[in-house]
Amino acid sequence: MNKLEDLIDLITTNLDSPEKEKLIAEIEREPDKKKLYSRLKTTWALIASERQMSDAKVETSYKQVRVQLSRNRAPRLISLVRLKYAASIALLIGLSVVMFYWGRYSKSWDETLVVNSVIAPKGEISKVILPDSTVVWLNSGTTLKYDNHFALDNRRLTIYGQAYLAVKRNEDLPLVVSTGQIDVKVLGTKFDVCAYPEEDDIQVVLESGKVELLRSEDRSVLDMLKPGQMAKYDILNHRLAIEDVQPNTYMSWKEGELLFKDAPMSNVIKRLERRFDVAFVVKDPGVYRSVLTGNFRTEGLKEIMEYIRFSCQINYSIQKDSVSNTSTIILQSK
Amino acid sequence: MLERESDLLNGLKNDDENTFKIIFKRYYSRLYYFIFEFIPYDDLVENVIQDTFLTLWNKRYDLDDDTNFSAYLFTVARNNCLYRLRSEKYRKKLFVEGSADSMELELNASILSTVDTSVYAFREIERIIEETLDQLPAQCKNVFLLRINAKKNKEIADELNISVKVVEKHVTKGLKVFRKALKDYLPLIGYLFTL
């Protein structure tokens, strides 16, 4: 029999066991035969690789990989919006650590407590996936902290700044967001927390699910929020007010939108500073008398400043420091 | 549309998951069937290929600017596969030592370890094979593809609703073309192996 034909039969799995054993032994003995078999086998494998698997099977497999992506890793920082003036790399601090043990390994976790910080620098909006699959969007100038026991025996987060959270439901382990003044306790919901240290109030807006608001000090329950409600906590007077709102308008920042609705200029300045990583200098207090209403999505800082000049009684000039590569915007009332 | 390799590479390095998915969809089935020819065990191959893509994602920042995804993924998949087969435990799970199947697996593993997955040869051969397969008459190609699928003649006959005799005829014809084409490939395939 033709020796090539034998090999092809072996490759195409058309040989019975005894014949197969004999031929393989032959191949192993004769280098030339092995070389030929190698070539045929590889070619055959390449031909086979041209086959198309069903989309459904590929999709299923992709989903499995996707799960492992979010599970295996240290939290991943995804830059959602590369802003015009943004530094391109988001900072991950203290991440060297992070070996998360899951469910079944939970007895062997590291006893020492390590705190991880994730920072979205000024000028950037970032997205983090936490070990429990909770997804957190961080607005510019926001710090998120949690320890290495997160998702094991606690789900405690500390947030300085603004974050939108899509919390993975876990009845046994409520997720608690601490802002220093009030805590937000949830089982599985979508909500927005705005608690920049330089601001006078803390806002919590609930999109879906249920949240409990607690006083950080003694963990006493202050109130509950329903979807579509916003809690505003006045830090100076320790007062909590709840009102009905359009949740979307408080969450559109994660798509890169800047939304001002009758916003006092002091607030506008802080938000622009964070968003574009610039500094403002206010030359006279008259500037603060203006309020701004406007919706910006793709506009750069310059366009927004033009809009402010047009709609408020404010003139501006931009000073560039070529050494430090920073911009300062000087505001003056007209 | 992301098409060029350099665009895909940029997407990956910018943590774009969509890019990752595009690459996954483009190469998953190829890698799967290629490895499956050497190691015909579903679960094992599935694991090997999934790990291959996880490696791509985890190493995305380290990828060279001129990375060829096909070559990279084939290489990682091959190494993954060989690594698994080195494990005693895995082998025991798969088959009885000393059986014909285990001998064949040993042989295939040793061949896989000599395959050079470097860029050029692979792409070129893929192209030639695609062309050759397309040259086969439609029904002959169908039969051939099913045959690759390790189906027996009887199963192919049932699936295509033709007689076993006709299947045999197609197989003989396909093999003839295959052999002729192989003759042309041989000098090229030579590049696939380290000396």
From TrEMBL, chain A:
Under the heading InterPro entries, the entry gives:
FecR, FecR_C, Ferrdict_sens_TM
Going by the UniProt record, its keywords in alphabetical order are: Membrane, Transmembrane, Transmembrane helix
Q: Domain FecR protein: where?
A: 120-212
Q: Where are the transmembrane segments?
A: 83-103
GO molecular-function annotation terms? sigma factor antagonist activity
Domain called Protein FecR C-terminal: residue spans: 258-323
One Pfam family from the record? FecR
Keyword Transmembrane helix in the entry? The reply is yes
- Provide the protein name: FecR family protein
UniProtKB/TrEMBL annotation, chain B:
GO MF annotations in UniProt: DNA binding; sigma factor activity
Residues covered by the RNA polymerase sigma-70 region domain? 24-89
Is tRNA processing set as a keyword in this record? no
Biological process annotations from GO: DNA-templated transcription initiation
Domain annotation RNA polymerase sigma factor 70 region 4 type: ranges: 127-176
Keyword vocabulary terms for this entry: Sigma factor, Transcription, Transcription regulation
Task: Give the matching InterPro entries.
Answer: RNA_pol_sigma-70-like (IPR039425), RNA_pol_sigma-70_dom (IPR014284), RNA_pol_sigma70_bacteroid (IPR014327), RNA_pol_sigma70_r2 (IPR007627), RNA_pol_sigma70_r4_t2 (IPR013249), RNA_pol_sigma_r2 (IPR013325), RNA_pol_sigma_r3/r4-like (IPR013324), WH-like_DNA-bd_sf (IPR036388)
User: Short name of one Pfam family for this protein?
Assistant: Sigma70_r2
Family, similarity comment: Belongs to the sigma-70 factor family. ECF subfamily.
Name of the protein in its database record:
RNA polymerase sigma-70 factor (ECF subfamily)
